[in-house]
Amino acid sequence: MKVATHHLRCTECAAVIPKDEASSNFRCPQCGGLYEVVYPWSDVRRDVKPGTETDASSAPTATFADLVNLLPNPSALRWLWQERRSSTMSVDQSGVWRFRDLLPIVDDFEKVVTLREGNTPLYDLPRAARAMGLNWLLAKHQGMNPTGSFKDTGMTAALSVAAQRGFEWVACASTGNTSAAMAAYAARAGLRSIVFIPEGKIAWGKLSQSMDYGALTIQLKTDFDGCVKILADLVQRFPIYLLNSVNPYRLEGQKTPAFEIVEQLDWQVPEHIIVPGGNLANSAALGKGFTEMYQLGLIPRRPKVSIIQAEGANSLDRSFTDANRVMKPVVAETRATAIRIGNPASWRKAATVIDELGGWCEQVSEQEIGLAKAEIGAEGIGCEPASAVTLAGLKKLVALGKVTPEERAVLVLTGHTLKDSQYTIDYHRNELFTAAEKAQLSPGDQARHAALRRPPIVLEADSSVVLRTLESYMNQPQPV
Ligand code: F0G
Fold this sequence. Notes:
By secondary structure, this protein is α/β, with parallel strands linked by helices. The chain has helices spanning 64-70, 74-84, 90-93, 126-132, 151-164, 177-189, 204-212, 224-237, 248-254, 256-264, 281-295, 315-321, 347-357, 366-378, 385-399, 421-428, 435-439, 443-452, 463-474, and strands at 7-10, 16-18, 35-38, 122-124, 137-141, 169-173, 192-198, 216-220, 240-242, 272-276, 304-310, 361-364, 409-413. The chain is built from 19 helices and 13 strands. The protein is globular, with a radius of gyration of 23 Å. Ligand F0G binds next to helix 6, helix 11 and helix 15.
């Protein structure tokens, strides 16, 4: 298929601009809205007969017949995407670019910047499913990407665009994962990168990554939202390519896990996708991925997408309880530092996904996040705290009857457990929560936390001492 063209369309006022005419802050000059990438086939629906309906705003000069001819054949695509996995070419081995037919955003696919991202596992979580009364529960582990988070799928896309458009400098503001991914991909491409992170408010593993990959790492004495403001100002003054998720090309890469999820389920569509919410681009990207597959006839329906936020960074959740759906920024505070964001840039895109695909927004407490993270760890999977909001949120959706036992839910685990090992150590040593937070726990939850905690034991190097300790440990029942 030859569709090497795309446009950018404002998601608020629907203004369409050519692909290389976006301003440096990726905001629509008319209304300040964010762009999305649209292709000639973006708005075509397979179930509409030629001549009866078309919205060709993405390709104003194309006729309906032209658009239909550009549509790939679903069976051919499924076969092609699977075949590419056995190729030795890096562009085929990438779990993003093997779907390149649906993201024709670069001029030369052979020159994409890739670390063989994507192709991440879909695990089952039988114990968590059983505990909630669900028949099954799956986790798409995006932490199994080259730099340990889902950001790699977006970064390969947007950084390839930056490289092919001849930029020398790239930059992002980050809570840690975007910066790690950007630094790695920029290094691979030979570009220079600048990272803005909130001082003292990101996990050490992530900070170490951007240094390791050679980025200029600047810690600003502010929070993530403050870093975004400074960078927005800078990109207007210097030729720096902005790689925050307002860059619509990031979302093109981040939509591909949606393709992988249904591919891994033999092209069956789960009922629910549960995503953590921070700056709210990932939920928007996954929604776009499912919608495009639906439009292309690859899947017969779309799953519901639910977004879970931390209670201390819950601006989207608040907007859903506001009659006028107004998003009021909050001063964010949560130990899940990846999603410590009070003024999410993509909130409208994310709200549209919930409205169009169905699903809900929920918020979860620090104690609920800690428990869910330990439960995911105890299944041998592990994830970073921000990812664990998905399990904590799903428990609430099940309790509210919004997810039923026979429905299939997929948690999107966004980051690897080693990203924030300090959190895990503090949790298991029972040093994570304040006394006030511990006092809020019900007796049942206290018992659940206690059964999961595995603090390290320090012993004399004496085998009889070790044996005595092991005996007492082995007499304890295995937690279910
Ligand atoms: N989970 C993790 C591990 C993250 O790092 C992020 C965002 C999210 C979830 C939320 O995704 O922003 O698309 O809603 N991290 C960004 C960063 C903001 O800078 O690394 P989102």
